Amino acid sequence: MEETQVKKNEDGKKVEDEVVRLRRQISLLPAVSFIIGTVVGSGIFIAPKGVLMNSGSVGLSLMVWALCGVLSLFGALCYAELGTSFTKSGGHYLYLLETLGPLPAFLRLWAEFFFIRPAVTSYVALAFGRYVVEPFFAPCVAPTVLIKLVSILGVTFVVAVNCWSVTLASRTQVTLTFIKMFALVLIIIPGVIALAKGQTTNFENGFEVDSLTLDRLPLAFYNGLYAYGGWFYLNYVTEEIINPNRNIPLAIIMSMVTVTVFYVLVNVAYYTMMTPAELLLSDAVAVTFANRALQGLASVIPILVALSCLGALNGGCFGSPRMLFVGAREGHWPPIFSMIHIRRHTPLPAVLLQYPLVLLMLISGEIYQLINFASFARWFFIALATLGMLVHRYRFPQHLRPFKVPLVIAVTFTVVCFFIVGLSLYSDPWNTGRSCLLTLTGVPVYYVTVYRFRLPGRLKHIFNYCSMQLQILLEVVQQEVQTY
User: Fold this and answer.
1) 339 three-state secondary structure
2) What span, in angstroms and rounded, lies between the C-alpha atoms of 319 and 38?
3) Cis peptide bond N-terminal to 456, omega within 30
4) N or C, which end of the chain has less CB nearby within 10 Å?
5) Rounded to an integer, what distance in angstroms lies between the CA atom of residue 354 and that of residue 67?
6) How many domains does the chain divide into?
7) What is this structure's pTM?
8) How buried is 460 (Cβ within 10 angstroms: 0-12 exposed, 13-18 middle, 19+ buried)?
C-alpha cells in the first residue's frame, strides 16, 4: 500500500501533491498502449528480412513469427505472475533479486546500463532515422551520417519528454500506439485483398528447406523475438500502475494476443506482394511494400513507420530507467539514480545518465549486429528470471500470488529460452560471446563495490562529491514516501 498520509497543515507539513515520489498514474488503456507501443516499433519493419534470411523459406518464416508470438505470450504470462507477486517496480532486476539473489540481479543492472539498453535504443533509433531520411534520397542510398544525426534527434526528443513529465510520456505513448496500429492495418488490408483475389504465387512450395541450416535457426528466432521485445516493460513500472493485480495480467494478455495476430497478418501481406528475393534485398521492407501495393499512399508509410519507431523509443526510455532507479534504491547502483526531480516527479538521473552511452553505441553500431549483440544477454536474464520464479514457487509455496501461470507454460518458456541462448553461442559466437564476456565483467565490480565496499577513501570522497554536484545540478532528491 502507498504511504501517502503526508499533508500540509499549520505545522508546515507537505500536502500529498507536493510529496516527491513516483505516482500511480497508469490505468488499463495506457498500460495496454505501453506494451503495444513498445513492442510494435522498428521490429516488424526490419526483422522480416532477418527471419527469412535465417529460416530459409516463406512457410518456415511465418511459423517462426507465430511461434515467437506464442513464446512471447508465455513469457509475458510468467511476468504477469512475477509482477503481481512482487509489488516493486524494476522488472528483471527485482525478480532476480527476490528469487536468485543479489549477484544475478546486479549483473542484470550492469548489462542493462552498459550495453543492453544502449544497443536496443540504438537499433530502434537507427530504424527511425532510416525511415525519415531514405524517402528523400530514393532511389539513391541515403547518407549514413544523416541517418545517424536524425536518429540522435529522435533519441534526444524521447529523453526530453521522459525527463519533463510522466503524464506527457504516457499520453505520447497512447497517441503513437494508435498511429502505429493504423500503419499495420494499412499494410494488412491490401495484402488480404490481394490474397483473396488468388495472388498466392509466393506461398507455393513455401516449406522448401534446402537453404535451411539448423545453426542459423536460432538467429531467425532472435530476429522474430526482437520484433516482439517489449512485453516485459510494464513490469518496470509496477509502482506506477493503478490496481496492478488486475491491470498487469489484463494488459499483458490483451496486448500480446493483438500483436501476434497483427504481426502474422503483416508478414502474410508482405509475401503476398513481394517475392522472398525482393524482401531480402530490401532494407526498408514497409517502404518497398508501399511502393508496390499503396502507390497513392507510399509517401505516408515511411512517416508512419518512423512514428512507430519513436513510440518504441519512448516506451523503452520510460521503462528501462525504472530498473536502474530500483537498483539504486536497493543499494546496487549509485544513489543518484534513485533520485526524483523535485517538481517534475520523474526519475530524471536514471533517464538522463543513460543518454551518453546510447549516443556512443548509436554512432558506432550497425543494426543487425546490434540485434544479436543485445539479444543474448537480454534473453539469458529473462530465462533466469522465469527459472527464479519456478525456484521461488518451490521454496515458498505459501507466498501470495494473485495471478498464477500454469506450470507447463513457465517450464516450456524457460527451457526454450535457455535452448535458444545456448545455441546462439554456436550460431554467432562473436557477438554473443562479446555480450557474455561484457556481462561477466560485472562480477568483480559487484564484489568490490556491493558485496564488500573496498574502494579507497579518496575515490569514495571523489564519488560522493560528484554525486552531490549532480544532485544540485539536476535538482533531484530521494523519494519522500514508500510507493510499494
Assistant:
1) strand
2) 9
3) no
4) N
5) 33
6) 1
7) 0.83
8) exposed
